[in-house]
Write a structure and sequence with these properties.
conserved putative lor/sdh protein from methanococcus maripaludis s2 fold, about 35% helix, Beta-barrel_RND_2, 4 domains, 6-stranded antiparallel beta barrel, alpha+beta, membrane, OB fold (Dihydrolipoamide Acetyltransferase, E2P), Helix Hairpins, 5-stranded antiparallel beta sheet, about 400 residues
């Protein structure tokens, strides 16, 4: 093998080092160029993305601005609606007549009426023992006979005296005496007859009679019971002609809107039937403690109406001319009631209202609307004041029908 000298190796090494330096500079330049290109590309893509984002945002904003929500609106106008007052009260007889003993009383021998029975005026309800009073009446009849006999004898004596006056056998003074005796005897007959009539009247009062036709509400007497007169416990309570009423207490501000003759609907508690009645009396005074007054509503007799029972009543206090809206149109925020109306340029406006009567037909608006506004029927919860919408008008009758169907 041929061996190289150290000088030759050193020459080759120097030649390789000289070739390596240009290559290093070339790779350095290439790296710098690549870095510049990468930075430029990154900046380009960043600007392009921002432009696209801005364009997308502008497009979205333009799209949102051009697409408005469609809402159904009505112009309610003004309609007459009945104003009502609700209350509760107690059923009672319109004329509750207590019936007791008018005479001196005694032992009851017969009771001829029952609770819940209809009676006529003058009908006997209770018979009281009259054995003592009957004997007293017989005695008075006998005294009348005695008095009549005395009167007849006095008249005969007077007639004979008159026939003897002309002959001089009887003086004028004697004749006057006989006339006085006859007049006294006739008077005693009248007194005896009056005493008998009094006794018979007292006997008649031992029959307790109905003062008027009506329905027996209560009975508190039995045969064999000792009863007394002078305003004791009533033996019966009778509703005259069966007429009933509802007695309800109302606040004084409610009474001012009512008048005699106003219609009312009464529903007994636990029942489903409603009875028509009318106010027949309003309390002339107000209780200073409760600030309430009594209203009395006349009702016809019906077995379902029981005095003492509890009932609710709805009184029609009058008619008012107000806008009427479906219940879906009226919203609440916990403090006030409000509706959404469509203002100029179809922009949503929030309007605070005062609610009146709420019925199956809708909600009457006492204040806040004049009836000419475009009111949003529903979807109010998805709207905000200032939103621009496309209103679709519907008639008030169709909106009410749709609301009731829901």
């Amino acid at each position: 093998m041929k061996m190289q000298s150290p000088d030759t190796d050193r020459s080759f090494a120097m030649a390789d080092a000289a070739d390596a330096r240009p290559r290093s500079r070339r790779w350095l330049v290439i790296g710098i160029v690549l870095i510049v290109v990468a930075v430029g590309a990154a900046l380009f893509f960043m600007k392009s993305g921002a432009s696209k984002t801005a364009a997308a945002t502008q497009a979205t904003a333009a799209t949102g601005k051009g697409t408005a929500q469609r809402v159904t609106v009505i112009v309610p106008g003004r309609s007459a609606s009945s104003s009502t007052i609700s209350a509760t009260g107690t059923l009672a007889a319109r004329r509750d007549m207590p019936v007791g003993v008018a005479g001196e009383g005694g032992r009851v021998t017969a009771v001829l009426a029952e609770q819940g029975q209809w009676v006529k005026a003058g009908q006997t309800l209770v018979v009281i023992d009259r054995s003592v009073q009957t004997q007293q009446a017989a005695q008075l009849r006998a005294s009348i006979t005695v008095a009549q006999a005395d009167a007849a004898l006095a008249q005969s004596n007077l007639d004979r005296a008159r026939s003897l006056v002309g002959r001089g056998f009887v003086s004028k003074a004697d004749l006057d005496s006989r006339i006085a005796t006859r007049d006294a005897a006739v008077a005693r007959v009248a007194v005896a007859r009056a005493q008998l009539n009094e006794s018979q009247a007292l006997i008649g009062r031992l029959d307790v009679r109905a003062p008027a036709s009506g329905l027996v509400l209560a009975r508190s007497v039995e045969a064999g019971q000792i009863v007394s007169g002078g305003g004791g416990t009533p033996l019966f309570r009778i509703a005259r002609e069966g007429e009933l009423e509802l007695q309800a207490r109302l606040a004084e501000q409610d009474l001012t809107s009512l008048s005699v003759g106003r219609p009312a609907q009464v529903t007994p508690v636990g029942g489903t039937r409603t009875f028509n009645g009318r106010i027949w009396q309003l309390s002339p005074i107000i209780d200073p403690t409760s600030r309430q007054g009594l209203v009395r509503i006349a009702l016809p007799y019906d077995p379902a109406l029981r005095p003492g029972g509890f009932a609710s009543v709805v009184i029609t206090s009058g008619s008012v001319d107000q806008p009427l809206l479906p219940q879906s149109a009226v919203l609440a925020d916990g403090k006030t009631n409000f509706v959404y109306i469509i203002g100029p340029d179809n922009v949503v406006v929030r309007r605070v209202v005062t609610v009146g009567e709420v019925t199956d037909g809708g909600v009457s608006i006492a204040s806040g609307l004049n009836g000419t506004e475009q009111v949003v029927v529903s979807a109010g919860a998805f709207l905000n004041p200032g939103d621009k919408v496309i209103p679709e008008r519907r008639s008030a009758a169709a909106a009410a029908a749709a609301a009731s169907a829901r």
